[in-house]
Amino acid sequence: xxxxxxxxxxxxxxxxxxxxxxxQHALALKEALVRAGSEVKQVVINxxxxxxxxxxxxxxxxxxxxxxxxxxxxxxxxGNVPDIVNRVVRESGFVGCSAGNDAIGLxxxxxx
Amino acid sequence: xxxxxxxxxxxxxxxxxxxxxxxxLLELEERPTDIELISRVFRAMHTIKGSGAMFGFDExxxxxxxxETVFDMARSGSLPVTKALIDLTLAARDQIRSILDASRGGPxxxxxxxxxxxxxxxxxxxxxxxxxxxESKAAAPKAETDGPHxxxxxxxxxxxxxxxxxxxxxxxxxxxxxxxxxxxxxxxALPSLEDLDPERCYTQWEIFLTTTQGENAIRDxxxxxxxxxxxxxxxxxxxxxxxxxxxxxxxxxxxxxxDINEEALGKALTPLGDRLVNAGVVSADKVRAALTEQRVxxxxxxxxxxxxxxxxxxxxxxxxxxxxxxxxxxxxxVQARLNQISGRLNNQHLQLVSEEIERLTGELxxxxxxxxxxxxxxxxxKFKRLVRDLSTExxxxxxxxxxxxxxxxxxxxIDQLNDPLVHxxxxxxxxxxxxxxxxxxxxxxxxxxxxxxxxHSGTSVLIQVKDDGKGLDPQLLRRKAVEKGLLSPDAVLxxxxxxxxxxxxxxxxxxxxxxxxxxxxxxxxxxxSIESLRGTIDVQSQLGIGTxxxxxxxxxxxxxxxxxVGVNHDYFVLPLAAVEECVELSPQDxxxxxxRRIVNVRGEIVPFIRVRERxxxxxxxxxxxxxxxxxxxxxxxxxxVDTVVGQHQTVIKNLxxxxxxxxxxxxxxxxxxxxxxxxxxxxRMVRYVELQETKETGG
Amino acid sequence: MAxxxxxxxxxxxxxxxxxxxxxxxxxxxxxxxxxxxxxGKVSGAAIDMVITDLNMPNMDGITLIxxxxxxxxxxxxxxxxxxxxxQAERKQEGKxxxxxxxxxxxxxxxxxxxxxxxxxG
Lengths: 112, 699, 121
Hints:
Largest interface: B-C, 48 and 45 residues
Radius of gyration of chain B: 35 Å
Strand content of chain B: 15-25%
Oligomer: heterotrimer
CATH architecture of chain A: 2-Layer Sandwich
Strand order of the largest sheet of chain B: 6-8-9-11-10
Distance between the termini of chain A: 23 Å
Radius of gyration of chain A: 13 Å
Strand order of the largest sheet of chain A: 1-2-3-4
CATH architecture of the largest domain in chain B: 2-Layer Sandwich
CATH class of chain A: Alpha Beta
Shape of chain B: elongated
């Protein structure tokens, strides 16, 4: 499931990603990321309940992460990065993708 | 893989197909140009051949193959359907039938007859030099006998690759099964989010594979996507070993790979990687890939030289080694100071020397640490027996698999890791993996799996024990904890927090105490041992699916990455691995929390401990305090300090005996200017504060 | 949680052999006897992978692959075709139609499992 909600102040939004982030859901994920990027200054990402993800999700998250850093957005994470996510990040060689600026601890590929 | 297959399914089907074949052949005699009929004949024979081979009817398969080969020419139009062809094919059909009859106890089939039919069919076929089938190239990859080699595989899939149902990540995993593998994704073709078509592949990979298998085996992995990607496989170590003794420099690799040109390289200076990236000459990914190449080749060289120097071992008393580690530690400290000064003076010459010393010190440090490193494999091996014996005792079927046995760890860590791992594995066998009959009911494979793995991750080693057992039930854990008075009934715990309860003192969820585990002492010991190694424990579990316990341990006990903070004029170090973020605490925040020590981090309430209060330090609190949020046993806890100085490579000195009662410090370190900073043991601090609070509130 | 694989073959013995192998590995199996039957059975069923023969009456494997790729649910689903050595040219035809890969008949259970791991994970 992909859900994006903005808090009352309108400055911060939470992107709740759960279940399977695979190619079947890639279009929806992109839409949510685009919305998050255009509507708020601060994005909180929650990956806690992600059960599977594939290359399409990594590509989208990587592109969004880059865009947002460039645009000076504040990105944080709530909840854990599940093992499966770390594993896919590691196995796909995305580890260290945004080294040095990994505010959400997603690109370390390690258990937190 | 032993699948019991009932061969009668095949014979029955084959008889059916044979009678269909007879009908079709007779019809074909009347309408010899009917393509649909020819196809039907071909299909029947094709199926008989294919199924025959699968069900072990080799004679049927071999004979039918010969007939099919000739008939295929008829199908493609290169051989006319004549009466002679039909006669021979009908004879062949009868022959197949008698082979089948023979397999069911009938008289043996006449081999001369078979040969005659085949000879006759071959005579019909236009000659084109033996119709023998070409062996599939996927057949057994040629193993090279002269030890492992490093290959660089550049895999560039077409953007449309997903639409063939291909998942490129699975191919990477397949390579990983062939040996030691490092994967670097090249993401520079990734457009901005707006322009990104989520169903296209923009990623390319460089994979460095150390394997005993040959290039063909690597290419075979990509056999389905040959036309959907550009694949470049290069053997790295062999030519290097002959050309020059030194591993390639980063610049050389980038040059050779065509990622930059000579002129651009000449302009750039050390540290090369950063400058090249900053100068926009090459992308960060390319540098990352080149660096990986450098490292993999170097490692392979070390492996080879290790093998060559088995007899050149020097025994050194460990005290000398400790002394060396201490000296290197001090050198690291002094070097940090030098770095600071050269940064301030902004003198280019000094900076160059300082950078060089930084590099040498780093290498010296790594080298010294590596002397104390041992592979964890021998520890892993001990558990095979443990699993075998315990599972037999409990009437369970369990298979232990391991990965990363060659992962190296500080000797001290390995020695102290044995007991905790025994406890965790015992626990998996006893509480995790179900009995075969229970597993059968839930549709799981009867044999349970415990996977033990070790992998390097930055400056840590992750040791994982993963089982596919029944998983942890957070509800049950909560209830037990409340029953045993370890948890107040109104406590709210997240699932990961509930999982951590199994490591609490006096906690055991076993319905019945067995002699394997369940005395409720083991897991508590695990936590204590891991903490004393400055490690952390993470538990992930899914009910009915299994449990994964991950131990994150520092590579070495002598040096850690720390976060340096200040209170008054004193300094403390927090292990950086535990630190999640830093927030500010204003007087307004304090007023809002009505005297409770809590901080609101984006809506989340995080309790904090003031270091100043904890250690009864003098001095006024600054107006704005800094709260360092750390992950302690899976919970977020803040630590209030005056200032956050920054990251600090901490050489740990043991505290003397006079400090033996202050176990809230796990050591001390000396800063560049000679000041001493104490290393905080966060988990202990939290526990003591909680204990104190329970006493206070409980009267 | 078990993944579902559809096997399409006009030979009941091949279907049985493939089915037994897959079930032994913990997969759910849906069987179809030819392309037409397969198309009729895909709607509503969550299918994670398709293994199809090429030579079949009613609708052959290549046509089936082409038809499946038109369905949104099968746009990215792994589809593996069963071929023989004498059909090398059909491999390309199948790939062009959208097949993920192929298995050359005759094959052993472990080869089949190897290919499934390769395309389905």
